[in-house]
Design a protein that fits this description.
The protein is an alpha+beta fold and 191 residues long. The chain contains seven helices and seven strands.
């Protein structure tokens, strides 16, 4: 299950090489719980986060609760909160594919989170995916205009695997979707 002590291990700047990971805000992951929903929905609805999502409308409270209830019942979904100094600072989720040990991930940090929080979240999430979930591969996507997410995936060691041209329509125009993948063997080499 999701219980246990897996989320208590903290990482510092030196674990993956100071040249790439300096300035990381160390933290830990824990499962998302119902009391977190209002805070996480606030982050998700913030313009700085929402504009980079596939669905860009403001998420209503009941819509968010319904989503959480569905995810809680799905053993292929893992919803996690990233904390620094016991303060929630980000959200990450994994959706495992039914065939094999491959999962998609998604994430965002609190709009007011200090610089370096995203890298800490990314490192912890990858450790969770490859060690706790024993994944072979983690896949990510970024809208073509989301340069920060594209750069972040590259910083985390992901390889760009393709471009889905004009794949996403936001109600006004089409956007490319950039596809990324990271294998467990590649992550171990970086680690």
């Amino acid at each position: 299950g999701r219980a246990g002590g897996w989320w208590r291990r903290q990482t510092g700047c030196g674990d993956h090489g100071d040249d790439v990971m300096s300035g990381v805000i160390a933290g830990n992951l824990r499962p998302l719980t119902e009391p977190d929903l209002a805070l996480v929905r606030g982050w998700r609805n913030h313009e700085s986060v929402r504009r980079f999502m596939y669905t860009q409308h403001e998420i209503a409270e009941q819509e968010h609760r319904d989503w959480f209830a569905r995810c809680e019942q799905d053993p292929l979904r893992h919803l996690l909160v990233y904390e620094c100094d016991e303060q929630p600072r980000g959200f990450v989720h994994f959706t495992m594919q039914t065939a094999g040990k491959v999962a998609d991930w998604g994430f965002y940090i609190a709009p007011e989170a200090p610089r370096g929080t995203g890298t800490g979240l990314g490192r912890q999430a990858l450790e969770f995916g490859f060690q706790r979930l024993a994944l072979h591969k983690i896949c990510g996507q970024a809208l073509g205009f989301n340069q920060r997410s594209i750069d972040f995936h590259r910083k985390m060691g992901f390889c760009q695997e393709g471009v889905l041209r004009d794949q996403h329509f936001d109600g006004q125009q089409f956007h490319d979707v950039i596809c990324f993948g990271l294998l467990d063997s590649e992550w171990q080499v970086r680690g």
